[in-house]
Design brief:
575 residues; 20-stranded parallel β-sheet; 22 helices; 13% strand
Length: 575
């Protein structure tokens, strides 16, 4: 008996592993970083340790409070009760107009707000004097044309004594009002020290913008300038400002910036600046030589580089890519159509590249299959990969290579890659590597891949898949959707536009089985009837966005009434 009890104890000891509560906080935080805001709110109820971890500043931005005309009253009442579980450090005002109710709400939560986004909300008068601790102000697509009571004074930025970040994208915003706010940020007017500035360049604000850039250059860490028109040929003042930006970490230049201006700005920034993120999207004037200069100056610090639509780049930029290959974590070269597959191999993967985690190559049409396979073999740590419209390079063999070597992949987009078939996902070749090897895949886009059928959907056993796009895959039907709704239970976003075989029963299966579904697109699915909308109204309790445009023969008014009666919580409906 003693020997039996001893053996039993040994078995229990050998079988017992590390309990999850024994994991260090660093591992907990890494695991929790994959959770949505709603998941985090559930996790914080598990234990005091979980509650303390969720309340860490690292997760606060996931808890941004969005105030709209639909929830403003409830938000105000919630705060007035005095017991709020919400943090109002990050707040967005969306689609609001000035009102006494909003003014009261901002009086209550204003002292807690440090980061404010104003989107489609001309409510500056309500904000005035309510945000004493504001550090970052973002104004997005806000117009004053509909608000006759709003004066040209807008918002007095001098009241924000702790302001260190200001963004104004300028869409529909009166240019004189923008200029007035910009002038308030000059050092002669305001004693704040900006670290973050996003603004639109226009000829009428050039002097004020240059003065703000010069005044705050020593502290600026993030600069984002959109050139809505081409600046003058004289770049001396621009150079003087950028020469002082010794702390610059992130720079985005977009719009109509001519070659001389771009070249002089890049030359002026100190080589000692710790530049980590550089976004030159749409810079048609960027040359291979400029990119080589960028690589030579910041090959030790640059982590993210966006060169979308930089169409002058070709195989001669290989030298720059090779210099950066040891530090770059994110690279976007979408629509750089003069690039070749061999050039990318020589630039990024002459040897195994463990650093690169995100690669976007949309519409780079001269990449060949062998080069793409070589890159996939030598980039073992990719998390996000986009090969939209790379029709020559994206084949069954390419995907087999991806599924063999990219087991850490989280996002895969292969829009309009018509050469791929179901075999690529089930397992292609003598040694098949199916998509199920990529267990952590969160997002998959196969839009326009017309050779795919229900067989693919039956093979998608991906428990962590959150976002799936199947638009224009016309050979998929109810059988495949039924399997999908069971094998991918975590799906929150599903797009099935223009699936000609999609029936009401398929919609029923999706909304019944996918309990976390929040966004559904079923546009141009001609076989759907009002019954599909009845299923949505009765079963899709967590749905917030529905797009169902272009369904021939559908009684749109009847569908709208069904949804309004049974699913009033829908935030966006497009029929």
């Amino acid at each position: 008996m003693e020997s039996l009890s001893t053996a039993s104890e040994e078995v229990q000891t050998s079988c017992s592993g590390t309990h999850i509560e024994q994991l260090p906080n660093d591992l907990w935080i890494e695991i929790m970083s994959y959770l949505s805001y709603l998941d985090l709110q559930q996790l914080r109820l598990v234990s005091w340790r979980c509650r303390n971890l969720v309340n860490r500043r690292y997760f606060l931005k996931k808890g941004k409070v969005v105030v709209t005309k639909d929830n403003l009253t409830e938000m105000k009442l919630h705060v007035e009760r005095g017991i709020s579980y919400l943090s109002f450090e990050f707040v967005e005002l969306r689609n609001l107009t000035q009102s006494s109710e909003l003014e009261t709400f901002l009086k209550l939560v204003g002292p807690e707000v440090k980061d404010m986004m104003v989107r489609h909300s001309p409510v500056f008068r309500n904000m005035d004097g309510k945000l004493p601790n504001l550090k970052i102000l973002k104004i997005a697509t806000t117009s004053f044309l509909e608000d006759a009571s709003m004066t040209i004074d807008g918002l007095n930025l001098k009241q924000f004594l702790h302001l260190n970040g200001f963004e104004c994208d300028g869409v529909s915003l009166d240019s004189s009002l923008k200029l007035l706010m910009l002038m308030q940020l000059r050092r002669m007017e305001n004693k704040v020290r900006l670290r973050h500035l996003q603004f639109e360049y226009r000829r009428n604000n050039e002097f004020a913008l240059l003065q703000v850039l010069y005044d705050h250059a020593p502290t600026l860490e993030n600069v984002d300038i959109f050139f809505s028109c081409s600046p003058g040929i004289d770049t001396e003042d621009w150079c003087l400002a950028f020469e002082l930006m010794g702390k610059l970490r992130s720079l985005k230049l977009s719009g109509n910036c001519h070659l001389v201006m771009l070249d002089d700005i890049l030359d002026s920034i100190p080589e000692t600046a710790p530049l980590q993120h550089l976004d030159l999207t749409g810079m048609l004037s960027l040359t291979n030589d400029m990119l080589i200069t960028i690589a030579s100056k910041w090959h030790k610090t640059l982590r993210s580089l966006d060169l979308m639509f930089c169409v002058q780049l070709d195989v001669r930029c290989v030298q720059a890519l090779h210099q950066l290959s040891g530090c770059l974590q994110t690279l976007t070269m979408a629509y750089c159509r003069a690039l070749t597959g061999q050039g990318l191999v020589e630039g990024l993967t002459t040897q195994i590249n463990y650093t690169l985690q995100e690669l976007y190559l949309e519409d780079v049409c001269f990449i060949d299959e062998p080069s793409m396979c070589t890159m996939m073999e030598r980039l073992p740590n990719l998390r996000k990969l986009s090969l939209d419209n790379c029709k020559q390079a994206t084949t069954d063999k390419t995907l087999a290579t991806i599924f063999q070597h990219q087991t850490l992949l989280r996002v895969l987009r292969i829009d309009n890659c018509n050469k791929i078939t179901d075999k690529a996902f089930i397992g292609f070749g003598e040694q098949p590597f199916p998509i199920t090897r990529v267990k952590g895949l969160n997002q998959l886009n196969v839009r326009g891949c017309r050779n795919l059928t229900d067989t693919l959907l039956e093979a998608l056993h991906l428990p962590e898949l959150l976002d799936l796009t199947l638009d224009y895959c016309n050979r998929m039907g109810t059988k495949g959707i039924a399997a999908l709704s069971v094998h991918c239970p975590a799906l929150e976003i599903v797009s099935m536009a223009s699936l000609s075989l999609l029936e009401d029963e398929a919609v029923r299966l999706v909304v019944s089985n996918l309990k976390r579904l929040r966004s559904l697109t079923i546009s141009n699915c001609s076989m759907l009837t009002l019954q599909a909308f009845q299923y949505i109204a009765n079963k899709a309790h967590n749905l917030r966005d529905l797009v169902a445009c272009g369904i021939d023969g559908l009684d749109h008014e009847a569908a709208q009434k069904i949804l309004e009666r049974h699913l009033p919580e829908l935030k966006q409906v497009m029929l």
